[in-house]
Amino acid sequence: MSAPPPLPAAAVGLGLRRALLDDLEAAPAGDFDFVECAPENWIGLGGAWGERLHALSARYPLSCHGLSLSLGGSAPLDLAFIDQVGRFLQQHQVRLYSEHLSYCSDDGHLYDLLPLPFTDEAVHHTAARIAQVQDRLGRRIAVENVSTYLTPHQAMSELDFTCAVLAEADCDLLLDVNNVYVNAVNHGYDPQAFIDGLPAGRVVCMHVAGHYDEADDLKIDTHGSPVIDPVWALLRRACARFGPRPTLLERDFNFPPYAELRQELQQVRCILDAAARGQAAA
Prior knowledge:
By secondary structure, this protein is an alpha/beta fold. Helices cover about 40% and strands about 20% of the residues. The mean pLDDT is about 90.
């Protein structure tokens, strides 16, 4: 089966959550260009929910953002599950499949995205597992930079670790702009320098979201509030650095009226369109 075409560079997306299905189905054309789901929440699902997923994925390109591969974990990869994901990606002609640059399992599932040590050993281990997943699926995947609050060991910076994994695994990056902001505050680094240091050719998609302000020096990535101005500014910086990339608005709970989400989607579109115009004029 031939691979589906990539998402358009200036595509705007919204996360597929069951609580948003009515709004997604009723949204007028042009509000968003693609939807993203976690395959774990939909694999094997039939009945009314399965029919609604099929109908929505027939209207909009679908991307998938996984939750449970545990790419940096020590337990063996779940090959049967990877094969399930592969069938789901083919069935729905999924344009982009991404996972988290973290781990979430040991002797069982830990139900959290836990930070990896920033060491050469972790680079080699994680990159080998990403390459194994890509070989098994027969397609490239993207990994997402995750938000962290403590790091187990840092022999290198998060930026250097991320770049090393991308290069050794020969995979792509889903750049979560909000996570860059959260980590920059939590760990005291320059978020603009982080974005400027990433390899442009690896960035295939971006996420924006809101977070919770626990304290001036502690931000919690929640996807439960509006995107704030500093994160919008970082998205503009990323677009200036990489050009427009398909960008998804994440909202996982505390859902506002759809009209408020629509305003944020319009903000994303304005930023991407401005970047596209800047590219064309260059």
